[in-house]
Design brief:
This protein is of the alpha+beta class. 20% of the residues lie in helices and 23% in strands. The protein has a single domain, classed as Beta-grasp domain (Ubiquitin-like (UB roll)), CATH 3.10.20. A 5-stranded mixed sheet has the order 2-1-5-3-4, covered by helices on one side. The longest helix has 11 residues. The relative contact order is 0.25.
Length: 93
């Protein structure tokens, strides 16, 4: 099983869990397994077409999956997946 690590902003929709072990041979399958366990995360992570929202960054063992194979990136047992929604802000000066 691989482990998905959630930032503080997503933990409320996952029952407060920080790390969740999931099955899945790809990033997409792992995210679907996560959403299957915690349906409230679906709207935070996925667009209506099933793709990741463009503002959600996903890292596999520290590597951005956008530069790998995206949702088709293979996942091995004991891999670490981090989900990080982009945060906008700053001064408009």
């Amino acid at each position: 099983m691989s482990t998905i690590r959630l930032p503080q902003v997503l933990r409320a929709q996952a029952g407060g869990e920080r790390a969740i072990e999931v099955e899945g041979a790809t990033i997409g399958a792992a995210v679907q397994a996560l959403v299957g366990r915690h349906p409230a995360l679906e709207s935070q992570l996925l667009a209506t077409d099933g793709q990741l929202h463009r503002f959600v960054n996903v890292y596999l063992n520290g590597r951005d999956v956008r530069y790998l194979k995206g949702l088709d990136t293979p996942v091995e047992a004991r891999d670490e997946i981090r989900l990080l929604p982009a945060i906008a802000g700053g001064s408009g000066g």
